[in-house]
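Table S2 (continued). Query chain:
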Amino acid sequence: MPVVAHRVRRLAQLAGLLSVVAALGVVSAGCQQINYGEGNNDDDWQPPPQDPWWEDTDSGNDSPPHEDAGSSDESDESTDDGGPPKLDTPSDKPDTPCTVVDLLFVIDNSNSMSAEQANLIASFDGFIAGIQANLDEANDYHIGVVTTDAYALNDPPCQELGALVTSSAGGSCGPWTAGRFISLADELAPAFTCAANIGGNGDTDEHQLEAALRAIGPELGAPGGCNEGFIRDDALLVLIVITDEDDGAMFDQGSPGGPSDWFAQLVARKGIESNIVMLALGGLPPPNACNNAVPFEGAQITYRISQLVNKFSYGQMGDVCADDYSAFFSNALEVIHDACNNFTEG
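Corresponding output:
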């Protein structure tokens, strides 16, 4: 296949995928907007008020929790949010950009995320205006979806946290050509549509970052494991979290540890911090697009997830309550493109 035609085909496939992602975002508004009290450490905070979210009319006006204590050293260069230094960021731009990209979508499947999923397909058009020039260097993609719990609709024995989705509310999706993940050998849009149609019957104790860490970890990626072959050491990792509730939204729930721990574990898995793109659609402090007066039109402010995103050289946070995610994903493509151009082989 001529090079130009091959690139046009890749871009068309990616456009279809990002169309689905943007459409998914339209239906992801929901849950509650709850305050954290002032002065809370991100790894040791007190539970928020238990009032129903629709009565919490002043949500989002309190100060967010402080970064975890002891996470920075005065002798180190710190991030803008006061967290630890960004590790192993190359000082010189590499000679060649990345050619291999692994994309992992962590999608909250709790009951507050179920609204408007029937309208998913209707929202595809018009989301991909800025994709044409981005990611043209990469020629090999792995795409996977995980939920924020041990997904009950997956085929046994992969009904566990972090296992890639191959069966969803839409029925059987995979395995696909390369295995339990989607690749360029597949038709990306229908494959991702099926995998992302996860429904809203999941556990309300969401484990967003634990799901991500398990998905890219050695246990599930081992030979014969549920995610075998998905994550590659020579690939740029793009992690995309879509949720309307913070990780650890209630005391003694959520993923173990906090933003600094999650950051360190993600970097340890890839080896080089700048080889990770960290994207999230979550609850932003006001002003935002959430409407707490209407059930499932709000979102809890995702302070801890935002703190994690801000630790990365290539990170972006967006509003999960937005009616249109096309601007978020258009900007995200630029972030991914920059990270790809600065990819460093470990």
